[in-house]
Here is the input.
Amino acid sequence: MALVGILGVSDATFGAVLTVAWLLILGATADRYRRGTLAGPKAALMAASAAFWLGFGLLQVSTAVEGAAELVVVGVAAGCFLAGVAAGYRWWTTRDVTHG
Here is the structure.
């Protein structure tokens, strides 16, 4: 990845930073939704975005492990992508499509 090469960090380090950041965003989204300060469709959109990027970060982290641990990390990343698709579908079906 070009950005990683420019910054001089490994893929795994970059992925770990992304993973932590998107976990925090996902947690904040869940908290705001639970408290009622974030509407359902917007929460679904944020969850979809966070899940996709969380999956990407985990795939970067998987470059630092091997064997069974790598399979677990890649499996969790795949689960995040699927959760992102589900949240994206929820957003798509519940969004406000009125124009004007």
